[in-house]
C-alpha cells in the first residue's frame, strides 16, 4: 500500500503483453487496478491473477476509440474501484505497410486506437484527478516515433502522443497531475511476435536480430516498461512531467 495510498489505476490494453505486466506491477505497488481491453473475458485472467495475489482488480471490456464506451467504462471503474487517479494509455495496434500500399483503413485504425483512444481516456479520467488535486498519466509512445520503415501510421501516432503528453503536462500540472510518456524499444510481446511472423522469420531469429542492435545486448521484457511506469506514478516522481523516457536498452532506437 505504501506506494499507492489505496488509489485506483486504469491500464488500457491490459489483457496481455506490456499492459498486463503494468497492471500486475501497479497492483503489487498497492493500487486497485482496472484492466481495460476490448472484451471483458480477455482481461479477466489478469484481474483474477491480481486478486489471487491479494490485490483488487476489475476487468472491463471497452474499445478505447469509442467515446460513449470510454465514458461508461470510466464511470464503472469509479463506482466499483474508486475514482481513478492513475491512467496508463497502453492499448495499441499495428497495421504496418509501406506508404504506397497503406490503406485508408490501416491509417485510420492506428490513429483511432493510439491517438483518439489516448485523448478520450485522458479526457474521461482527468476529472477524477483534478477533483482530488493528484494524478498520474503515462502514455505509451515508441522508438518508432523517431521514424521506422513501414510504420508511417504508427510512427505518426506515437510522435503525436509525445506532443499530446507535453501539452497535458502544461494544462494539468497545477492540479497536481503529471503526464509523461514512455517510448519502448523492442519488447518481447505478441505484437513483436506477429511482426516476425509477417516478415517470415521465427520469433527467436527476430529477437536475436534485434538484440544484436541493442547496446545492452538483449531485447526488452514487459516488466522493463512496468518498472518505469511504477516510478512515474510514484509519489516521489511529482516533479517529473512532460517527459518522454526512452526505455530501449540504449540511447537510440
Ligand atoms: N512490443 C513492443 O516492442 C512495443 C514497442 C514500443 C511501443 N509499444 C506499445 O506498447 C503498447 C503495448 O504493446 P504490446 O506489445 O503489449 O501489444 P499487444 O498487441 O501484445 O497488446 C495490446 C493490447 O491492446 C489491446 N487493444 C488493441 N486495441 C484496443 C482498443 N481499441 N481498445 C482496447 N484495447 C485494445 C489488445 O487487445 C491487446 O490486449 C502499445 O501501445 C504498443 O504500441 C510496444
Report a brief summary of the structure.
This protein is an alpha/beta fold and 253 residues long. The protein has helices at 17-28, 40-52, 67-81, 104-132, 152-172, 190-199, 203-211, 222-232, and strands at residues 8-12, 32-37, 57-61, 84-89, 135-140, 177-184, 244-247.
Give the SSE layout.
Elements: E1 8-12, H1 17-28, E2 32-37, H2 40-52, E3 57-61, H3 67-81, E4 84-89, H4 104-132, E5 135-140, H5 152-172, E6 177-184, H6 190-199, H7 203-211, H8 222-232, E7 244-247
Parallel strand pairs: 1-2, 1-4, 2-3, 4-5, 5-6, 6-7
Helix pairs in contact: 1-2, 1-8, 3-4, 4-5
The protein binds nicotinamide-adenine-dinucleotide (NAD).
Describe the protein's architecture and organization.
With 253 residues, the protein is α/β, with parallel strands linked by helices. The protein has two domains: 8-185 and 222-247, NAD(P)-binding Rossmann-like Domain (Rossmann fold, 3-Layer(aba) Sandwich), CATH 3.40.50.720; 187-219, no CATH class. Helix content is 47%, strand content 16%. It is built from eight helices and seven strands, in the order E-H-E-H-E-H-E-H-E-H-E-H-H-H-E. It has helices at residues 17-28, 40-52, 67-81, 104-132, 152-172, 190-199, 203-211, 222-232; strands at residues 8-12, 32-37, 57-61, 84-89, 135-140, 177-184, 244-247. The chain has a seven-stranded parallel beta sheet, with helices on both faces. Strand 1 (8-12), helix 1 and strand 2 (32-37) form a beta-alpha-beta unit. The longest helix is centred in the middle third of the chain and has 29 residues, at 104-132. It is globular and about 45 Å long. The mean pLDDT is 97. The protein binds nicotinamide-adenine-dinucleotide (NAD). Nicotinamide-adenine-dinucleotide (NAD) is lined by residues 12-13, 15-19, 37-38, 63-65, 90-93, 113, 117, 140, 142, 184, 186-187, 189-192.
Amino acid at each position: 500500500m505504501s506506494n499507492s495510498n489505496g488509489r485506483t489505476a486504469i491500464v488500457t490494453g491490459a489483457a496481455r503483453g506490456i499492459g498486463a505486466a503494468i497492471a500486475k506491477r501497479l497492483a503489487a505497488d498497492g493500487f486497485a487496478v482496472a484492466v481495460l481491453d476490448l472484451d471483458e473475458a480477455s482481461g479477466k485472467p489478469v484481474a483474477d491473477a491480481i486478486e489471487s495475489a491479494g490485490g483488487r482488480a476489475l476487468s472491463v471490456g471497452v474499445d478505447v476509440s469509442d467515446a460513449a464506451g470510454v465514458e461508461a467504462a470510466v464511470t464503472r471503474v469509479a463506482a466499483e474501484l474508486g475514482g481513478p487517479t492513475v491512467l496508463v494509455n497502453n492499448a495499441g495496434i499495428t497495421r504496418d505497410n509501406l506508404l504506397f500500399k497503406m490503406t485508408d483503413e490501416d491509417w485510420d485504425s492506428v490513429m483511432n486506437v493510439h491517438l483518439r483512444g489516448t485523448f478520450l481516456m485522458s479526457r474521461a479520467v482527468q476529472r477524477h484527478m483534478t477533483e482530488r488535486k493528484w494524478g498520474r498519466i503515462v502514455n505509451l509512445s515508441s522508438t518508432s516515433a523517431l521514424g521506422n520503415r513501414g510504420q508511417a501510421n504508427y510512427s505518426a501516432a506515437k510522435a503525436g502522443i509525445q506532443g499530446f503528453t507535453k501539452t497535458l503536462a502544461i494544462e494539468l500540472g497545477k492540479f497536481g497531475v503529471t503526464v509523461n510518456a514512455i517510448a519502448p524499444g523492442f519488447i518481447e510481446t505478441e505484437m513483436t511476435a506477429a511482426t516476425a511472423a509477417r516478415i517470415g522469420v521465427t520469433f527467436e531469429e527476430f529477437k536475436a536480430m534485434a538484440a544484436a542492435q541493442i547496446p545492452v545486448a538483449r531485447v526488452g521484457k514487459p516488466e522493463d516498461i512496468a518498472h518505469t511506469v511504477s516510478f512515474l506514478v510514484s509519489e516521489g516522481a511529482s516533479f517529473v512531467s512532460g517527459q518522454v523516457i526512452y526505455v530501449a536498452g540504449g540511447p537510440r532506437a
